[in-house]
Amino acid sequence: MKKFLNACFFALCSLSVSAQIQVKLGGTVANTDASKITLARVEDYEKFKMNEFEEVQIQNKKFQKTIQLLEPGLCIAKIGDKSILLFVEANENIQLKIDFKKEPFYEVKGSKGSELVLSYNLEKEKLAKEKLKPLEEKFKKANSDEEREIIYAQYLQLQQEIEKKLNDFALLNFGNSIALFFLAVQWSDETDIAFIDEVNQRFQKKFKGTKIATYVADLSEDYKRIAIGSVAPDIELPNPDGKNIKLSSLRGKYVLLDFWAAWCGPCRAENPNVVNAYEKYKSKGFDIYGVSLDDDKDKWTKAIEKDGLRWTNVSDLQGWDNIAAKAYGVTAIPKNFLLDKEGKIIAKNLRGKALEQKLQELMP
Prior knowledge:
- It holds the Pfam family AhpC-TSA.
- Keywords: Cytochrome c-type biogenesis, Disulfide bond, Redox-active center, Signal.
- The protein is α+β, with helices and mostly antiparallel strands.
- The chain has 3 domains: 2-110, Immunoglobulin-like (Sandwich); 117-225, no CATH class; 236-362, Glutaredoxin, CATH 3.40.30.
- It is built from 10 helices and 15 strands.
- The strands form 4 sheets. Strands 13-12-11-14-15 form a 5-stranded mixed sheet, with helices on one face.
- Strand 14 (335-339) and strand 15 form a beta hairpin.
- Helix 2 runs antiparallel to helix 3, helix 5 runs antiparallel to helix 6 and helix 7 runs parallel beside helix 10.
- It is elongated.
- Residues 1-18 have low confidence and may be disordered.
């Protein structure tokens, strides 16, 4: 979904749970030879399947058309090589001012959700430029691994602070607008569960029964299942010898559920840190359940041996279709979840010294 948002930039759709509604779309264009705007709507939110359904002709640099839509949702207005995401509700009169020589290349009025998302993104870009960019430059100029590690930790902390500021901004300004959908598709397993609940409850209050609301509700439940404090979903996968081993069989210990792969450079670079933590704390009740996203058994087992991963290693050898990865919403690796002795998730994505520091707190 995030890839989808990056590929597009912003969007349009519409309204009413029980009957077709209409939306007016108009505006002006400048510095482009485009002769039409093509509208596409989302037919399937889970797969993000789009369907083009309308063309709006541009004449004398202006356009205007009334569009029939079934329910609130998300569509894309495509003009030339650019796309506009519009978040639209019933009976809106959306006015776009498009200029290919400006940045951003459009302004929007008459669509509350679309206006809110645009303002959110501009605030996000501003904070990234003011706060994160200087640290990125500082990281590039660092003279040692130790200095880079300190800067990276500062960067992650600042990212969390910016995310909280943006979330507060959104909750204050978005109300129960359809713009809330934009927040939902940016959730990750790091997102505060209270924030997820608040966004979902607001969304369901106004849009329950629509395709987009059903998707948001399902998404909310998926993230709640792997939230800190939740009992980790059980996994049962085969080890290199073909024996099925359950994650729950390690209950009674602190367990790192570690997603990795032999082909993943960052994973292999992180493995020495994980090995050091395992060797230091295994006698105190720490264990690891390593899930590989490999699809080649020979490469997987050779990586286990080479990196010295002497703990429980499992894989169904389905690559990114790994059933455990899907259950935990894994879309990038390395990724890990730390479980307590009862199998509850107590931390996520502990890398470098962070893993040993956390284990030191738990097992001094």
